[in-house]
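Question (not urgent): is this output format expected?
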Amino acid sequence: MPSDHRVIGRRNNSAWARFKLVQEGYLMSDSARGVWEITKVGRALVLQAKEGLS
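Got this back:
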């Protein structure tokens, strides 16, 4: 277990970000540990954002 509070903070932030993305329907909730699998809704959001950059 890391003793550096910055590492622990980043892990905590990542966990909350993943939780929020799952709740919004952008990531699969049943992905393997460490895998962030995007849903069809998530793909559509990425494509929409990508079009906005062009």
